[in-house]
Amino acid sequence: MIPFGSQRGLGQDLATHLMNEHDNEYQEVSQVRGAIADDLHGAFAEWESQASSLTKCQNYLYSLSVNPDPEQPLSRDQYLDYIDRAEEKLGLSDQPRAVVFHIKQDREGRAREHCHVVWSRIDAREGKAVQMAFDREKLMMVTREFARDHGLTLPDGYYKDRGNEQEKSKQLSLYEKAQQDNTGITKGDRMALVTQLWKSSDSAKAFVQALEDNGYILATGKRPYVLVDIYGCTNALPKLIGDRSVRTKDIREFLAKDFPPESLPSIDDAVALAKQHRRAIEDFSKAKQKDDRLQKLVASQTARRNKCLADIAALKERQEQDRTRLQKSQDGKQREFKQKYLEDVKRLNDLRAQNRPAGLAAFLGRVTGMNLIVGKLQKCVMRASRRSINQSCRRCGCFKNKSAICSSGNMSLLPWSRTARCVRLIKSISVKGSRWRFRRNGSSARKSMAAITTCRQSH
Fold it and tell me: In the 8-state DSSP scheme, what is residue 66?
């Protein structure tokens, strides 16, 4: 069971802290005595009004927290018994008070109940504040008596001889606890660091330089030689040296020659310097983090770029292989179709030679000019055939020049079938031409040109 009491002001902040639902699983205002209001903010405002109107007391409240051992929980009657004993011992009997119970989880996840009691130190009848001398010793006496009466076991510190000197870091004040919560550095860590620097320094300059290297600025205030850390927290230098043999007088004599108090910056100036130093450290840290992120991004992009370049090179190599293989295939097909084309041309020429008219038909063909027309018609058919092949090849995109043959099929067969139809048409024209009567007005020539036009339209 550990009680902790202190005098304080700022009642509204204390009321807000006691009613905090974020840090506490459960809170209960068990009692509000000596106030018209039944809530903490209203009651503390009344007590603050009494303090400001009747006295000049700044710390008009006395706050006591009672934290029992989780292994030895207290009942509500036991809490009230302890509160009444402490109230009587502290001289706060019949003073206005408020009792609040909290339940919160400890570090091990267990529900822990504790109690807060706040008294008003202002005696409205007398018009003065109740003096709180030796309150810590009185609370220890009450705790021992209470534990004896209820059969509780107390920590070892309650049974030590009061003649022995207590350690400087035995109990944290509210300011020290706020420092620890804000910075994450415990008072023990501070004392261990400063004590080590004190013992390892052989001169005042070496000691101050070591303090600066560890983020502390030596300043002066109401008392000389105050340490200001990088977070702007102030601590008296003698209180941070844990060596019991070192006194405040020894520290002042050690530093007075090289660092007299009047040469040191004030606490406000030191806090401003610490703020600038902290901002510079934060900017450097942010710049370093940004540079690290940039380096990671560059490395990631480089890896992705190298992979893309490798994929592109592989794709080009694969495309080149496919292009070479396709070119070889197309060249073979081109030679094959070219040979077939030449064979078809030879076959067609032979067919034309066999079907060439003789005798009277040949004579009439020469006389009437039909042989000339047939020759021109054959040339027209050949041109149409080549033009049809070229257009088909352009659509499929499989040849680079006009004389190539389409690889998608035997396109040469189509022109020769058309040529056969034209040959049959020419034969019919030749037979009919032998029966035409030639007139001087050139009607036979017009009919021949009409036949050529019909042949062209058929293609």
Answer: E
Residues in Cβ contact with 346 at an 8 Å cutoff, skipping those fewer than 6 apart: none
Query: Does residue 33 sit in helix, strand or coil?
Result: strand
Q: What is the distance between the alpha carbons of residues 434 and 348, in angstroms, rounded to a whole number?
A: 25
Q: Which amino acid is at 34?
A: G
Cα three-residue angle 183-285-283, rounded to 5 degrees: 90
Take residue 49 and report the two structure tokens written for it. 């009004």
**Which residues lie below 8 Å from residue 262, measured CB to CB, with a gap of 6+?**
220
- The whole-angstrom separation of Cα 172 and Cα 207 is 26
CA distance 430 to 365: 8
State pLDDT tens for residues 175-224.
778 888 888 888 888 888 888 888 888 888 888 888 888 888 888 888 88
In whole angstroms, how far apart are CA 267 and each of 38, 75, 218?
42, 47, 9
Strand locations in 26-60, DSSP E?
Answer: 26-33
Strands of 295-442, DSSP E: none
- Domains and their CATH numbers in the chain: 2-159 (3.30.930), 174-265 (no CATH), 355-458 (no CATH)
Backbone angles phi, psi at 109, to 5 degrees: 85, 10
pTM of whole model > 0.85? no
Q: In angstroms, rounded to a whole number, what is the distance separating the alpha carbons of residues 19 and 183?
A: 24
Widest CA span in the chain: 161
Burial class of 377 by CB neighbour count within 10 A (0 to 12, 13 to 18, 19+): buried
Token representation of residue 1? 């069971």
Residue 362, H or E segment: helix 360-368
DSSP state of 25: S
CA 41/CA 447 separation, integer angstroms: 122
- The answer to whether the CB of 198 falls within 8 A of the CB of 243 is yes
As given in the structure block, the two tokens for residue 196 are 């080590």
Report CA dihedral (327, 332, 336, 341) to the nearest 10 degrees. 30
Taking the C-alpha atoms of residue 345 and residue 347, their distance in angstroms, rounded to an integer, is 5
Alpha carbon distance 115, 443 (integer Å): 132
- β-bridge partners, 28: 101
What residue has token string 């008009």? 60
The amino acid that residue 352 corresponds to is: R
Eight-state DSSP code of residue 247 = -
Convert the pLDDT of each residue in 119-170 to its tens digit.
999 999 889 999 988 898 899 899 999 999 998 888 776 765 444 444 444 5
Distance CA 457, CA 422 (A): 11
